[in-house]
Amino acid sequence: MASTGTDKPDPEAATKSEVPHPPPKGIDYFAVDVGLRVLLFAATLTAVVVMSTAKQTEPVFVPGAPVRVPIAAKFNHSPAFIYFVAALSVACLYSIITALASLGVIAKPIYATKFLLHYAFWDVLILGIVAAATGAAGGVAYIGLKGNSHTRWTKVCNVYDEFCRHVGSSIAIALFASVLLVLLIMLSVFSLHSRIRE
Amino acid sequence: MASTGTDKPDPEAATKSEVPHPPPKGIDYFAVDVGLRVLLFAATLTAVVVMSTAKQTEPVFVPGAPVRVPIAAKFNHSPAFIYFVAALSVACLYSIITALASLGVIAKPIYATKFLLHYAFWDVLILGIVAAATGAAGGVAYIGLKGNSHTRWTKVCNVYDEFCRHVGSSIAIALFASVLLVLLIMLSVFSLHSRIRE
Lengths: 198, 198
Prior knowledge:
Chains A, B: This is CASP-like protein. By secondary structure, chain A is mostly helical.
């Protein structure tokens, strides 16, 4: 920056020419990246399994029937929960693929910068999908928990308590998965930033 | 890179020292950035206004009352819609601040790289908030539109048609805002990537 003459040997250039093949610049966080992606895989898989296994049959009063009729509550009774399972399944598959790709980058780091760019792009899309799914399932689950007096939507969690516990846990895990995705994007962006030499 | 001696004048160092203040490396997309942020501001503001003005009073049958009672539907009757308005308001405020900051970077580009890093970090958080809000409002609005026979949640959009049009438009605009945020993050990441000289 503050060099005044061009004929003097540049100290920066001297440091550069000592290494014949320059190693990848910047700091490599691919080990952290793999760890976070494995965590993401575990979280999304758990969320999908917990939501899919949310099933409870309870005897409830049905208008017109003289006795309580056993009625099952399943996750696929709500479109929001179906979308939730679909989105989290996509994120789960994505986390496997990218964790393997990250392992590949650790083994052969020449394409590290390209991978960071693509990770940041795709992670953002997956974050959007997972966050929207978490929001949708959360919004519907909240109605199930509290009901809505204005639209006379009755709460269902007083009857289907275990079903609601499953749904609630699944949404909490999905929220954790969203946080992991945010961290992954920040990690990619930060790694890219650390490669810029100013 | 391929220089063998350290006493020779480095051509790269010569190029550097020709310019007293080196211009920011890489391609600058801050003009696009400002444009997208202004669009984001317009979208989030519209979504908030359209959702806040969703109000409709219709005479409906109430159990126990002999005649139809006029009942108003407002956005704040649903916690999901309240969260939606809050989240989109935050995004609206954020878009103003960052658009001004981007203008500042165009005028004085020495901190461009730092700004790109911070933009990517914060845009991701705002994307998570906006996407979750869009999902939550969408999930609740879908129940309002179609109802849910399993939980006996009746649809309300056959009565409150204009209210539902407002809500639906607002959610569609919020979805557009989410896409804008994804594009903004990709732009920041791509700009950062273009500054890396390998």
